[in-house]
Amino acid sequence: MTTYSRITGTGSYLPPRRVTNADLAAELAARGVETSDQWIVERTGIRARHFAAPDVTASDLAAHASRQALEAAGVAAKDIDLIIVATSTPDMVFPSAACILQAKLGIAGCPAFDVQAVCSGFVYALTIADSMIKTGAASKALVIGAEVFSRILDFNDRTTCVLFGDGAGAVVLEASDTPGILSSDLHADGKHVGMLCVPGTVSGGKVLGDPLLKMDGQAVFKLAVGVLEDAARAALAKAGKTDADIDWLIPHQANIRIMTSTAKKLKLPMEKVVVTVDQHGNTSAASIPLALDSAVRSGKIRKGDTLMLEGVGGGFTWGAVLLDF
Ligand code: ACO
């Protein structure tokens, strides 16, 4: 019998400090940086984001989201046999946030590692977990997106610091006789490294280069819309499905204008798109599982719905996962 993988539980966590556009504009004004709620809402759709306290790490956020997902799935932490954390803002250079999370969950022994694909990290991680379950290497996986992007923002650069937030989302992915994950389509093109990056690195005990986020926003916008459509269409074709089969589109929550353009290209009304960017901002690898969990908990997404998850981010990386929930 073929083994498939299926999401059996979702969870998420936002750090308690909620920062509205007005709050952020006031903080930035104190630095001499000018922005407004109106500009941010019109250009991005973002109204608020959450920022973690300075001593809170990606694995802390991941632990909260994971416990919720385990509870929703009715799975005990000790039965998890694979942990993958998608993050670009891990607790340390090493070990991975996944290993730190494993200890926080009070378990040991199963493989645990991070995936670094920036805002596409969750679709990458989900695809890896699906592949490992299909080969029999795992049967109950925890797949998490967790980020503290506030750590790498340049609060003197208004073109980037208003866009991002912190948070985590998690799913339990279990072996199943029925799908589950129907198809996935992943890509990268390293020639776009400079379009969105944090160029700094650690060397000889010092930070070399600039450790804050740099982005060419307009170039990202153009590239994102095209590749998101291509990845979604490729995932549909691999599963023998069409646009009309999608019940919910859960795109990476970067910017409402990118999401609207993508939905239009896929001929999906905005009523079928899960939108949380207004309340979360762009939480990079956490954005898709955060949006998924919020739509599951609000009762929008029901068991049996067909979901298209798609992400695009630094690298550049992009990809889509089509699944029956
Ligand atoms: N507040 C007020 N004014 C601002 C701000 C701000 N926060 N940021 C920029 N401006 C100003 C600029 O200085 C510029 O002023 P000027 O005309 O006097 O020079 C003006 O607004 C227009 O700037 P643009 O960069 O042309 O604005 P644009 O409409 O392109 O919007 C944005 C910028 C929102 C970044 C857009 O390009 C975008 O959404 N790009 C996609 C980037 C993205 O979503 N990245 C997320 C990470 S990547 C990912 O997750 C896939």
Helix content: 25-40%
Shape: globular
Order of helices and strands: EEHHEHEHEHEHEEEEEEHEHHHEE
Head-to-tail CA distance between termini:
20 Å
Report Rg.
19 Å
CATH fold type of the largest domain: Peroxisomal Thiolase, Chain A, domain 1
CATH superfamily of the largest domain: Thiolase/Chalcone synthase
The CATH architecture category of the largest domain equals: 3-Layer(aba) Sandwich
Hetero groups: acetyl coenzyme *A
Strand content: 25-35%
Count the domains: 2
Strand runs, count: 15
| Biggest β-sheet strands, sense, barrel | 5 strands, mixed
Query: What structural category arises from helix and sheet content?
Result: alpha+beta
In CATH, what is the class of the largest domain? Alpha Beta
Q: What count of helical segments does DSSP give?
A: 10
The average pLDDT score comes to 97
Residue stretches low in confidence (pLDDT < 50, at least 5 long) are: none
Architecture overview:
By secondary structure, the chain is of the alpha+beta class. The protein has 2 domains: about 5-175, Thiolase/Chalcone synthase (Peroxisomal Thiolase, Chain A, domain 1, 3-Layer(aba) Sandwich), CATH 3.40.47.10; about 180-325, 3-Layer(aba) Sandwich (Peroxisomal Thiolase, Chain A, domain 1). The protein has 10 helices and 15 strands. It has helices at about 20-30, 35-45, 60-75, 95-105, 120-135, 160, 215-240, 255-265, 275-280, 285-295, and strands at about 5-15, 20, 50, 80-85, 110-115, 140-150, 165-175, 180-190, 195, 200-205, 205-210, 215, 250, 305-315, 315-325. A 5-stranded mixed β-sheet has the order 1-7-6-4-5, sandwiched between helices. It has a 4-stranded mixed β-sheet with strand order 8-15-14-13, sandwiched between helices. The structure holds acetyl coenzyme *A (ACO). Acetyl coenzyme *A (ACO) binds next to helix 2, helix 6, helix 7 and strand 14. Acetyl coenzyme *A binds near residues 217, 218, 255, 282 and 313.
